[in-house]
Amino acid sequence: MKKPQTLSLQEQLLKSGLSNDAKLKQVKAEKRKQTKLERNNGVETVDEVKLSAEQLRQQQAERDRELNRQRKLAEEQKALAAQIKQIVDLNRIAQDANGVAYNFTDANKVKTLYVAEKVRDALSSGRAGIAKLENRYEIVPAEVARKIQIRDAASVVVLNEASQDLAAEDDPYAAYQIPDDLMW
């Protein structure tokens, strides 16, 4: 069995008619001149093709780093949203459709939740808060609302500061009851 003969690129180009002997000699002469200059002068010639390829590789690497950074940031935000959702789902306080209306503002719009009287008092006094989860509002204890606020401050819509009942002895209005119809 005969081994197939391998031809060099130059021979293949000559055989196919894409090149001729004159071009081949010219390329060889230029190559010899270049190597001789490098050897004699110690000067290295700059290969534009290699230089542009290196620049392209560096630009691609920079783009890849930026894409990876953005992807990582998106994954972190997604994980944070999942944590907040889990915290809210595990600690939410039930709303009462037949309860008292509790009004609050979110993005300059007044929203209403119906809750039990005890929950409304907890919201007013700062023992509970309201967290926005996707497009719904959930009531959570104040400690949970603070944990959520640490992760994402925009998720907590209502968290009143715990007010201390300052029923001082010299308060002239301490003996008066607040009417029930003064809710907003």
UniProtKB/TrEMBL annotation:
Organism of origin: Methylomonas koyamae
Q: What is this protein called?
A: Nucleoprotein/polynucleotide-associated enzyme
Locate the region Disordered. Answer: 25-44
Q: Bias regions of kind Basic and acidic residues — which residues?
A: 35-44
